[in-house]
UniProtKB/TrEMBL annotation:
<dbReference type="GO" id="GO:0005829">
    <property type="term" value="C:cytosol"/>
</dbReference>
<keyword id="KW-0658">Purine biosynthesis</keyword>
<keyword id="KW-0808">Transferase</keyword>
<comment type="similarity">
    <text>Belongs to the GART family.</text>
</comment>
<dbReference type="GO" id="GO:0004644">
    <property type="term" value="F:phosphoribosylglycinamide formyltransferase activity"/>
</dbReference>
<dbReference type="InterPro" id="IPR004607">
    <property type="entry name" value="GART"/>
</dbReference>
<dbReference type="InterPro" id="IPR001555">
    <property type="entry name" value="GART_AS"/>
</dbReference>
<feature type="binding site">
    <location>
        <begin position="90"/>
        <end position="93"/>
    </location>
    <ligand>
        <name>(6R)-10-formyltetrahydrofolate</name>
    </ligand>
</feature>
<feature type="active site" description="Proton donor">
    <location>
        <position position="109"/>
    </location>
</feature>
<protein>
    <recommendedName>
        <fullName>Phosphoribosylglycinamide formyltransferase</fullName>
        <ecNumber>2.1.2.2</ecNumber>
    </recommendedName>
</protein>
<comment type="function">
    <text>Catalyzes the transfer of a formyl group from 10-formyltetrahydrofolate to 5-phospho-ribosyl-glycinamide (GAR), producing 5-phospho-ribosyl-N-formylglycinamide (FGAR) and tetrahydrofolate.</text>
</comment>
<dbReference type="Pfam" id="PF00551">
    <property type="entry name" value="Formyl_trans_N"/>
</dbReference>
<dbReference type="InterPro" id="IPR036477">
    <property type="entry name" value="Formyl_transf_N_sf"/>
</dbReference>
<feature type="domain" description="Formyl transferase N-terminal">
    <location>
        <begin position="2"/>
        <end position="182"/>
    </location>
</feature>
<dbReference type="GO" id="GO:0006189">
    <property type="term" value="P:'de novo' IMP biosynthetic process"/>
</dbReference>
<comment type="pathway">
    <text>Purine metabolism; IMP biosynthesis via de novo pathway; N(2)-formyl-N(1)-(5-phospho-D-ribosyl)glycinamide from N(1)-(5-phospho-D-ribosyl)glycinamide (10-formyl THF route): step 1/1.</text>
</comment>
<feature type="site" description="Raises pKa of active site His">
    <location>
        <position position="145"/>
    </location>
</feature>
Length: 201
């Protein structure tokens, strides 16, 4: 499968995918390009270090959100992906993007959806006093972190946890979960039926 990965930050989930592909010739997917909504991030440095094409589509370079969404969809389409992976991509895509990639666009979120959606899932779980939290890999739909759940991983919250410490522990689980899910979707195929995701064993 041809993957396009979208990032907005450090890109450690991207790096986990790169490392898995490098380590396992039968992984069943390869990254054909990495895109971002901003420049100057480690995620793009990691892509360039791996010799991958990159693109940056910034909201402020477009007259409005819909124009940005179309530009992002075009930039992704140019690489003919089978699957698009949001690995820490911090923008909500719109109708045009979903029209083209809905059903083959997965996101990873650092909380156990439907709990704590949005941009501060780790902080919100900690503030709430949750005893366990974790991460969710799901298909993206027209909501915010509301699409069909593919897999989840649980992480204990410790009494002395800071947001960063907890997020780092979550990311250890999240990177493994994302690598596993992307590999299975790529190798085994899948069907989405309502909120259920069926991946042949
Ligand atoms: C991940 O935990 C992702 O779920 C969240 O931001 C983090 C991105 O980490 N949205 P990285 O850029 O993959 O290191």
């Amino acid at each position: 499968a041809r993957l396009v990965v979208l990032v907005s930050g450090s890109g450690t989930n991207l790096q986990a995918l790169l490392d898995a592909i490098e380590a396992d010739p039968s992984y069943g997917a390869r990254i054909v390009a990495v895109g971002a909504d901003r420049d100057g991030i480690a995620g793009l440095d990691r892509a360039r270090a791996a010799g991958l094409p990159t693109f940056v589509v910034r909201v402020k370079d477009h007259e409005d959100r819909a124009a940005w969404d179309l530009a992002l969809a075009e930039a992704v389409s140019a690489h003919r992906p089978d699957l698009v992976v949001s690995a820490g991509f911090m923008k909500i895509v719109g109708k045009e993007f979903l029209a083209r990639f809905g059903g083959r666009f997965v996101n990873t979120h650092p909380a156990l959806l439907p709990s704590f959606p949005g941009a501060h899932g780790v902080r919100d779980a900690l503030a709430y006093g949750a005893k366990v939290t974790g991460c969710t890999v799901h298909f993206v739909d027209d909501g915010v972190d509301t699409g069909p759940v593919i897999a989840q991983g649980v992480v204990e919250v410790r009494p002395d946890d800071t947001e960063d410490a907890l997020h780092e522990r979550i990311k250890e689980v999240e990177r493994r979960l994302l690598v596993d899910v992307v590999g299975r979707l790529s190798r085994d195929g899948y069907r989405i039926e309502g909120r259920k995701v069926m991946i042949p064993a």
